[in-house]
């Protein structure tokens, strides 16, 4: 072979093999990046107020590999009339869940009323006001209270109570924003390391999680009345989680709400009190959510028996769903306490719920 090469006037040189590093990209990584990009766009559409575009983006990824496997994918219990005994067998005491009494905020309100009364008496004595001046001050106070009630739906009162509750009542603050301090120590138990505070905004996280799993896109959230005022710029808007609900409103305006849509919003309405019940064994907040659901069922012409059936099913369905996804709810609450965007919260839900648990 070598002689032949020499006679032909050239030589054959065997090329040395070259090796290049090739990174094998996991399909889940690509899908995760794609999902994050879409969710970033969802945040942009929500920020612009284009709810239809945001919902359209979410639905395009719904149920697709590497997309949004959890959106509207919650496993639900059969819908029928459940007895109170059946709920008790599932560890649900409806009297502790569906009759929330905000004893904490009520106590703060009573103390403020007593303080205002004592302040008025002190002002009367110090400045030696006559009866006419005292009456004028009283009427002015009643006028301002009426304006707040009529024009702002009690927004000013709610803002004052909520702000004072967060500032001076640890119990109220912990109910809305559950605070857990974990003290870690070294192996010799000689000293404690610094405490780690993990804030879980459980009530609103319950609303957010259940809405997403039921197929309702959260639009945004605020965690206090002061934050709602700062973000929205209106006293008529109270703290809480808002949703993309134009489909629901279209059905209401058409005079025909489908069973699917009613089931979704029934569970979302009860998600906050259900979360509090699972955490504390009772619920204090969420009375307005229950009242709104009650008004909706009455407006749809539900009899008391039919309304009870709807509420009991929603309670059972919501409680069981929250129990299955307790870890995701806690992670979501932590993200919400850090004021993460809606898209980031959705991405977190998708990461912490296994498709086999849906």
From TrEMBL:
GO biological process, one term: proteolysis
Gene3D superfamilies linked to this entry: Peptidase M41
Listed InterPro entries: Peptidase_M41-like (IPR037219)
MF terms in GO: ATP binding; ATP-dependent peptidase activity; metalloendopeptidase activity
Highest taxon in the source lineage: Eukaryota
Protein name, as recorded: Peptidase M41 domain-containing protein
Organism annotation: Dillenia turbinata
